[in-house]
Amino acid sequence: MATYRELHGKAVKSLSTDPSATTDAGQIWYNTSSDTFKSIVNLEAWSSASGLGRDAGEFSGGAGTQTAAMVAGGKLPEVNTTNEYNGSGWSTGGNLNTAGAYRGLGGTQTAGFCFGNQVASPDFPTGVSETYNGTAWTSISTIPQVHSQAAAFGSTTAGVCASGRTDNGDNATTVTNEWDGSSWSTGGAYPASIRLMGVTATAPATTGLAFGGQVGGSPSPGNVTTNNSYDGSTWTAQTVIPTATSSNGGAAGTSASALMIGGNAPSATANCFKYDGTSWAASPSLATARRNSAGSGSTTAALVTAGSSAPGADLSVTEEFNSSATVITGAAWASSGNMNTARGQIAGMGIVTAALAAGGYQYGPNAYTAVAEEYNGATWTNVPSMPVTLGFRSGAGTTTAGLAIAGHDNTSPTSTSEWNGSAWTVGGNVNNGGIGSAGNGTQTAAWLAGSSEPPKRPNTATEEYDGSSWTTVPGALNTGRGYCGASGPQTDGTFMGGANPSTYNNTEEYNGTAWTNSNAMVVPMGNMANSGGSAPSNSIMAAGSANDATSVITQTTNGSSWNTSANLSVARGTARGCGAGANADSSLYGGGNSPSINSTEEFTAETTAVNVKTLTQS
After folding, report:
1. Mind listing the pLDDT tens digit for each residue in 40-90?
2. Domain ranges in the chain?
3. What confidence tier does 579 reach under pLDDT thresholds 50, 70, 90?
4. What is the spatial distance between Cα 348 and Cα 338, in angstroms, rounded to a whole number?
5. 244-258, 324-338, 380-394, 579-593: segment of lowest average pLDDT
6. Residue 484 falls in which region: left (phi positive, over 0), alpha (psi -120 to 50) or beta
7. Which of 243, 195, 245, 236 is CA-nearest to residue 217?
8. 302 or 331, greater pLDDT
9. How buried is 546 (Cβ within 10 angstroms: 0-12 exposed, 13-18 middle, 19+ buried)?
10. Are 380 and 339 in contact (CB under 8 A)?
11. CATH class for domain 334-604?
């Protein structure tokens, strides 16, 4: 019998700790600490990823790789939005010149294209086409044969758009159009008049795979199992897909190695199938069944987002597929202990394992409260109430040296309350802030800016606190607003979002002297909970009000751009309380709008680890 060394050219190592490099995949070692044989094993799985940040709905286009993807357009009704994915979250890209859905999207995040378009009024495809340079979209000449719901792949200098819908009666064409970077020409005809296919893109750019779809006609005869590859001039039939499915974008990979992701078969499915150039085999299923989604990437690192789970049930959830020796655990919020008093508009201070929630507003009873509670990372305990009864207060400092600043009880009081870990005392009054002001810092070096309600709207004033009194400083906000997020110390602060009368997505950074406009949020937001250490490189915001009264959206920033992250379990607005740690170490509690919420959620950032398995004999 051959030995392990003879088979693999390696000896079985004896190690006290497990190796952590994926390059050790397949190597067997003996762990002397656990007295077991172990190995790093390849794993295939879908995992939760950051939400898109908008309900893109059905028929958005997807392109790029798992770490540099883009999604454009969509039907809610038709939008012109572009979102970009960096491997951890979504940010906002340049808007399309023409809003539309059912686009054929392809290329890369920095050299992409969209061919064809469809709008609801009138409900008819167009030949509108554009190219993308990573920042802005540029209109190019229209396709000779108008398409929507077509098979599109390739690059900005060698693109293909085949078959698809041609009128408002769901009829389809067999025409293939090719783009060479300056003009259109006619390629080989598609074998059948099909729309809503799954499509992969590959190099060389003029080769691709189109599978499934729906036969043209109104009403359509139904979904098909066909699978055809294009070599730059001719379409050739390949092994049919396992189940008749219309996908319209739920695909990744190349013509020789592809994934069919979800689809309509005939309702939304979570099935995923892998193609090796010869045959199809079942792969791990999606967590969320979806159809008409936006897919991108490869068979070892794919991405899918948007789509719908049923008519009218539009999705923004994103999932990643990985085939590797690395286990990826997506960022997530987890439930923790409930507050004793449900309320929103809370002044929050401290960190995730030592937080204080002070004051607030009880939706339902419609009453302000002075109640205060401390959190130890698991449970809440009542502590002495504030000396004033207020909501919408800003919080700063820690659970042993904290501040609750200004606030709202329909009179916009300007008081400051200081907390020493056991009792409250009265601090200096603010000069300008009040309802909807936001600030951060420490008990002896805090800052406050903005306001939202008359007569102090729009307020651009900035104030600083020295432990006893507030002083208005020369640095003024560029955009006066209130109900914002605020994080960071007095010399490195961030002021973000805002609401009432408008909802903002702009961010400003404070260096202790002046405010500078910074990167925009993915989703405009006000009345959010937020935290951050040395801002803005690790700030996080969650919940709040966008177009809805409450939200589950989370956004984080690395200092250069905002990205979406894991959604909350419970939608809420006016939460206002969030731990003051980095974005990987935050908690959120309370909120509303009606009734008030007493639940707590804690945030854990995405983690990766090698997939070490203990070997057993069966």
Report:
1. 888 899 998 998 887 666 788 899 999 999 999 888 678 899 999 999 899
2. 4-41, 45-326, 334-604
3. low
4. 15
5. 579-593
6. beta
7. 195
8. 302
9. buried
10. yes
11. mainly beta
Structural tokens at position 51? 């939400």
CA distances from 271 to 33, 101, 244, 291, 456 (A): 41, 24, 12, 11, 55
Per the CB < 8 A criterion, the answer to whether 524 and 479 are in contact is no
Q: Report cis status (omega within 30 of 0) of the bond before 455.
A: yes
Q: What CATH architecture does domain 45-326 belong to? A: 6 Propeller (2.120)
Token pair of 67, please? 């770490």
- Distance CA(227)–CA(239), nearest Å, equals 6
pLDDT tens-digit profile of 200-236? Answer: 865 556 789 999 999 987 777 789 999 999 999 999 9
- Total Cβ atoms within 10 A of residue 410: 9
CA 422 to chain CA centroid, nearest Å: 40
Tens-place pLDDT, residues 498-526: 886 677 888 999 999 999 998 888 888 88
Distance of CA 174 to the CA centre of its chain: 37
Name the pTM for this structure. Answer: 0.84
Three-class SS state of 304: strand
Buried b (16+ CB within 10 A) or exposed e, 492-520: bbbbbbbbbeebbbbbbbbeeeebeebbb
Tell me whether the omega of the peptide bond preceding residue 387 falls within 30 degrees of 0, making it cis: no
- Three-class DSSP category at 42: coil
